[in-house]
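INTERNAL AUDIT FORM
Audit reference: QA-55
Scope: verify that the stored structure record matches its stored sequence.
Auditor: D.O.
Record contents follow.
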Amino acid sequence: MNRAQIYFFVALGLAAIAFIATALRAAPRREDRRAPAPEEIVIGLVTDFFDALGIGSFAPSTAIFKLRRMVPDELIPGTLNVGHALPVMLEALVFVGAVIIDPVLLAAMIASATAGAWLGAGIVAGLSRRAIQMVMGSALLTAGCIFVAVNLGLLPGGGVAMQLGGWRFTLAVALNFVLGALMSAGIGLYAPCMIMLALLGMHPIASFPIMMGACALLQPVASLRFFQTGAFAFGPSLGLTLGGIPGVLTAAFVVKSLPLTALRWLVVGVVAYAAFAMIRSAQRGA
């Protein structure tokens, strides 16, 4: 384990403590405080299971919440960031230590995404319901297009590099700042980060510690903003956490890998329907 990984795990521990402490302080003040429904726990179990396999959890969770009308649209971004925070921290513990990449690149990518999330969460918390619906509808459509392109082999498979230098390093760090900010709006980081690094010539496995390490720190940071504003749904977010933790453990240590092509096609259909429903709601002012 190199020094950058040690620093990351220390930062991850501090972030987890801050997240849990803030959540415990915020819970008694919530008017919507309740135990999560079994369905909400199952959603966390399934979406974080596939998140640990690299398919992402934000788009499927958003689609289910919209289709089932479980969470008000304007609360979905905060619910995703709060609910999936602890499971993705667990993912980072597994993957950041298992895959060795350039420690400077890893630290810079995680720091830039975290800074972007802090800025983005403050902006998203103040957006109107219609604006959030339009942003998330567009994000779901983008995610669906990415899944289609991956399944059809239209996106690059990546190179062999485990580090980046020069302009590629600078560009990757800058773009990850933007991706971190978009996470606060409920736009998942996994797929675009993986594609960006592949375009820059990195090995596909190198994206796992970067994207999981970035999300492990940026989600609790963004959640602190959502705790302050109250822009999240308590029961569903707790359900995502309670189901997500065993989902991650099952994926990482029991299943480890699956043929994901068929699953992506299923996700495309669900996500596309939810995207159009979200945009239609924004146009109708519903």
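Auditor finding: record pair retrieved intact. The first helix runs from residue 3 to 26.
Action required: none
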